[in-house]
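job 3f2a | input accepted
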Amino acid sequence: MDRVLGLLPWVLAFVAVVAFPLLLGPVGFAYSLLWSTALVLVRRIAGDDRERRLASDALAAVGCFLGAYLGGWYLLPSVAAFAILDLRGPRVLKAPSSRDLAFTTGIGSAVAGILAASLLVLGRLYATATSIAGQDGARDTIASNETFLEVTGAAGFAVVAVLVSCSVAMLFGTAAHRARRGIARPLFVLGALGFSLVAVPGALSVGLYVAPAAFLAWVATVASWRPVRGPSA
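job 3f2a | predicted structure (233 res):
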């Protein structure tokens, strides 16, 4: 039960950072990256000591209040949940290590990218209407739903190709990071930039479907940005 309770603050934080792009548009990605990184750092600094965890909770609450107009209000439920659990006893799960965070978000970004590409190919996202004039002069309107590819043509195929390529880059980057290979960083950056090039310009349309992949890709990129040692002989 304690383990389930320990997940609650992280779930609340995840909901908050995912909400930023949906509520604020493209600038929300920057807020998501800022607050998620800050929260993970605060929890890692908190460590195992109860007094230090409570002090970190107080610091996080002050930071959220001071940064209210930058989205800090959205993190307050998560910070409150951390404080309650730290105060009452159940051990809150530690923040994941950089390596584990990069691995998890890298895989998540690849999966989210494939799902977004599949939705653009198979999902009938656009409602269209065709007006036909009859012999008596009356006009009939025929409504139909079309896929992203049917509406955009060759440009749509290019977008889907970018999403698939970025997903593959994130998968290979995750594998390389797991094996402690330096090529992981460029692959993560490539995937994050590619997803962002689709998500940001299309923020009011298909970009919303790509936003989770872009966000997770940038988290993986930041988490992987540390010295990488080759495998031991």
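job 3f2a | Residues 98-223 form one domain.
job 3f2a | closed
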